[in-house]
Amino acid sequence: MKKNLLTITLGLLLSTLTYAQNDNSKKDKELKETEPDQEIVYDSYNKWSIEIEAGQSKGTKPYAVGYYYSNPNKHFAFEFNHFAIAGRYMISPTFGVRTKVAYDNLSNLSGSESLPFEMEQIQASFEGVVNTVRLFNIEEKAGRFGLLVHLGFQGAQMTPKMGVNEGRHEFNVGLVGGFTPQFRVFKNVSVFADFTINSNVRQHFNWDGSYSEPNNNLTGSMYSTSLGLSISFGSEKIHGDWAIIEDKKSKEMRELEARIGDIETLMNDTDKDGVPDYLDQENNSIAGVAVDTKGRMVDLNNNGVPDELEKYVDKSVTNNISNNKAEISNGMLLQLINDGYIAAYFDTDKRVPTTASTDNIGFILNYLRSNPTKSVDIIGYADAIGKSNYNTKLSNDRAENVKTILMKAGIDGSRLNIVGNGIDDSVDRNSEYARRLVRKVVFKVK
Asked: What's the pLDDT score for residue 391?
């Protein structure tokens, strides 16, 4: 009988673990490929779980004279005589309830000098469960480990299987409690060891099957030690015993802070022209130069030179001869180009300049037409997202496309030199708005 029960229970444990492993293998693949021991955070969790266990139970008292369970001739004696299955529901992340059905078969151990006996007990219990790891807020330190404490009421039927009282039934009630260390194997599967003490407050049978007088109300106790498997059920991502549940107000505050941070980022003004970056189509306007509502330097006469610069040049050379004025103007334009104020910008992974960059390319076109002896390096850049080799080619393609635009506008290709400088990592790679400033082509007049 005991061998058959042991075989069936071990078979259930093995088949359940195999099923759980196959069912969770895809879900756990991503977890194992990243950081297997990293605590996972979810806003919801599986509340239901089933627990299967097998181990040893031992009645400690009462026994009649000549009967006992232990074998004094052995330091360690173990046999599988306890089998149980339970269903658990977590009402909250910390507290839950559990119902359990257990079968125990107590007899004198092989080699023991005890008189022979065999007592069968079938027990049902209802218990409250506390997740102590969450109760004491040590989830992060515990990692995959957990500890449950359970306490409640139990009712049992005792039936001697041999002796003068063989087949006679007695129903008892009492208390049951214990603790359960756990270790999470997969997201929804854990293994555990359980230590439980049962106390019958009303009992007339001794564990050996002898019966006391009706007016002698015995108290009996038994403890069990077992190993088991816990599997959670539901549509969520993780076993409830390990899910970290955020306070609703804390979550709302974190989301609000994130939105405020996004607004602050949107309101950044990189070139200090009074136009926020998210509206600014020309993020490199010169300080002090008037811009329109889209952040573009004002050029009412469409000659490729911002009106403020033209006014500055005219004011600086009011009393000079026209040739000297032309020299100063050309010097200002040359500095404007070589210092990178004139640039063509690109969207992420694009090789064609943005529409807003047309004016700046037109500025270079006008300069080259006005200075036919000059040539220019067209220098391409990419942001820090992506592989280096890919970005080097991307920067070269961007410069090549700008060269093609200028050639189609009438500039001889021999005056245009392509340089692919690859990644510009001078800005924060985690800021999309900052990366916009380095996806560009700049010019160097020679």
From this structure: 94
